[in-house]
Structure formats: C-alpha cells, structure tokens
Design brief:
This protein has 403 residues and is an alpha/beta fold. It contains 24 helices and 8 strands. It has 4 domains: 101 residues, Orthogonal Bundle (Fumarate Reductase Iron-sulfur Protein, Chain B, domain 2); 33 residues, no CATH class; 119 residues, Rossmann fold, CATH 3.40.50; 110 residues, Rossmann fold. It is 52% helix and 8% strand. Helix 23 links the parallel strand 7 and strand 8. The longest helix is centred in the middle third of the chain and has 20 residues.
Length: 403
C-alpha cells in the first residue's frame, strides 16, 4: 500500500511504525472473512481492510469525522484478522495509533468522554471497583432476574498455598478479576503447588494497563506498566522464573510491555525482560508433568472451550488449554467458528452493547450446540460476559484442574 503521511506524524515513532504496517497491506481482503463485525454488519468500513483505509486517510491529513471514529470504535481489537493475514499486517498496533490520532483530531461529545473517563477511573482500581461491586451484590436478591444476571455472585478465593518450592512464578492479581472471581488465581496457585511450583502474589502490582491503553490513554497505561515492573523486578532479580496471570487479556498486554516501553531509557531493558518472562497460565501448566496431579482429580465432563481472542490471536496460543483438559480426561465438544469473539472485548460490551449482545448470542449458540455440561474459558471478561446469558455453567479452565 502506497502512503504519504502528513507532516504532523510522519517523522514520529508512531508515524514510522504506522507507515511500515500500512505498506505491508496488499488489499487481499482475507481479513474480512474472519472479522466478527464485518460478518454482522457487511460494511467494508466495519472490517479490517476498510478500517485500514480510514486510518491511512487520517494519518495522511484528510478530514477525520464522527463517521471515522464510529467505524474504529466498532472494532473489537480481537486481532482475528492478524491470524488470517498472509502479509503479517500488525493491525492491532495500527489501530492503537489510528485511534489516538482520531481522538485528538475529532474530539468526542462530552458524554462519551465522561463515560470513558469513568471506566478508566473505576475498572483498573480494585479499591474503587470492589466496594461498588459489593454494593451491587448486596442488592442482587432484590433485582429483576434480567438485571441480576449481570451482577456476579460473591465468591471466596479459597486457600492459597504459602510459597514453599524452589521454583517460583509471580502472579498479577489483576483489577476486576480480583474482585469478581478471586478463586481463579487461588485455584492456579493450588494446581501449581501440586506441580512443584509456587505462585507468588505481588500486591504492589495493579492493573496491567490494558483498559487505559485501549481507551487511548497512553501515558496512563504506561504508568501502570512501570508500576508493575517496579513491583516484580526485585523478585525477578532473585530468581522468579516467570510472570503470569489468570486472565489471557492481561498476559497479552504484559507480553507487549517491551515494545510499548522501548523508547523509555529507564524502563526499556526491564520491560523487555518482563515481556520475555510473561507466560500464559496454559503455557506454564502444559510444560509440567500433569501426572503429579493424580488420577483422583479427574472428573470427566463434556466441556465446550471458548478460546479468548487474547489467547488465540493476541498471544498466538491455540490448542494448549484443550490439550490439557483432554489429558485430564474431559471430553471437548465441537465449537463452530471458534475463532470469533464472544463480544466482551474489555470495555466493548459497555461501549458497544448492541453489537456485543449479538456476538454473545452467536457465540453461546456455537458453544451450546454440542450440549456441553460446562463452558470453560481463559479470561475474566469472557467468563463474565458468557455467564450473564448462559444456562450452562461457565468456569475458568484452571478450576477444572483444581477440582
């Protein structure tokens, strides 16, 4: 793709990166076949190829309008198009750059800015989110059934084994997950403990930065990343072998720290090392001898696995969780269009509720078609989104190993 970027961006780091990405696109259109929003809406501008044109025009100085912003907003950032692209176009990075430019050149209405600011103020901060969630949970019995399903039941974490093994991995508690489903990381700690690995929580670490990053608050996102690196660094220096989370979205974000902080002279080296040591929970578990869990832990069930976009597209991990569940005796059911997003996509279900609901309905129809006893997933956002509308119980896959 030929480009002629405008002076305001062409000599910047973002401009050079965007230019390189744009020039790899050959207009083939393979990406449209796997784009969830294009499949729903059938509009070229609601597919990756059309959005790439919109971003290109914005970076070349052409007028940026509400229409430009609307089509970019509808993108889930699922990166399914990257998995399909034969040319290796890094659409996710291009979208981040394009959205930041559009935010600046076509300011949002006041109410949209207020909502996004409220999400950034609330979601990444457990000290703010948890009390609000607890209040909602206290009112849950009084609410209509339709509304009640959107408020997760209160759950206990259960025991977390004290560190006792020579092998240690660090755990990011996460922001909303630590309040909504604290049992996920605790289950991971118990499973890893039986495998001879201690999962060490790091209370000083907080949100991975994804909420701010994907809402175009770059400086704020980088501050979250630096704080986490500072929290992990002493233990990494003392031999901790990996950083992991129980949410595939957080892990996908941590794996990009090195790239996003590459121009920070104080953090570039540390960020690169953290990204190199970032591991999805499935990667860590799959590398161990699962026979150490013992046959008595196997409860054979029919399980439909929903692979989050941040696992299969963001991290490029496919089939790993399924292999683990299969090895433990579960029967994996067939799921059509398994590459498609469930509609959660971080804050997407809040900002684009109509499209999100349609995507969720399609995903649940696919997951439930082969009559599973359980639906398992690997990300808190997907779990909450699916659980709110599913008649089949939805769990994190690590909880099946912990049974």
């Amino acid at each position: 793709m030929q480009t002629n970027l405008a002076d305001f961006i062409k000599n910047t780091a973002d401009g050079r990166e965007a230019n390189s990405i744009l020039r790899k696109c050959v207009h083939c259109g393979f990406c449209t076949a796997t784009c969830p929003t294009y499949q729903l809406l059938g509009d070229e501008l609601d597919g990756p190829r059309g959005r790439i044109y919109l971003i290109k025009e914005s970076l070349e100085g052409q007028a940026v309008t509400e229409k430009t912003r609307r089509h970019l907003d509808r993108c889930l950032s699922c990166r399914s198009c990257e998995t399909t692209c034969p040319s290796g176009v890094r659409y996710g990075r291009l979208l981040d750059i394009g959205r930041a430019v559009v935010e600046e050149r076509a300011p949002r209405p006041v109410h949209e800015r207020a909502l996004r600011r409220a999400l950034r103020w609330l979601l990444p901060h457990p000290g703010r989110f948890a009390p609000l969630l607890r209040f909602g949970q206290s009112l849950r019995p009084l609410l209509p059934a339709a509304l009640r399903r959107h408020i997760p039941k209160r759950s206990a974490a259960g025991s977390w084994p004290a560190p006792r093994h020579a092998r240690r991995v660090l755990c990011l508690d996460g922001c909303v997950q630590s309040s909504i489903a604290p049992g996920i990381n605790a289950a991971a700690a118990r499973v890893l403990d039986r495998l001879g690995v201690s999962l060490v929580p790091t209370a000083a670490a907080g949100c991975c930065g994804a909420v701010s990053h994907h809402l175009s608050a770059r400086s704020e996102a980088l501050d979250f990343m630096r704080r986490n690196i500072d929290a992990w660094w002493p233990q990494l220096e003392q031999g901790a072998e990996a950083v992991l989370t129980g949410a595939s979205a957080c892990t996908a974000m941590i794996k990009e720290y090195g790239e996003l902080l590459a121009d920070d002279p104080q953090y570039a080296h540390k960020a690169a090392r953290v990204s190199k040591l970032a591991r999805d929970l499935s990667e860590v578990i799959a590398a161990e001898d699962l026979s150490a869990l013992g046959n008595s832990t196997v409860l054979s069930r029919r399980v439909a696995f929903h692979s989050p976009c941040t696992l299969q597209h963001g991290q490029g991990i496919r089939g790993t969780v399924e292999s683990i569940l299969d090895a433990r005796g579960h029967l994996l059911t067939r799921v059509r269009d398994s590459h498609l997003c469930c509609g959660s996509a971080g804050t997407y279900s809040i900002l684009q509720p109509t499209l999100s609901k349609r995507l969720r309905e399609n995903k649940l129809a696919a997951l439930e078609a082969d009559k599973p006893e359980l639906i398992a997933t690997a990300n808190i956002g997907c779990l909450v989104e699916l659980r709110a509308a599913s008649d089949v119980p939805v769990v994190h896959w690590i909880e099946l190993l912990d049974e």
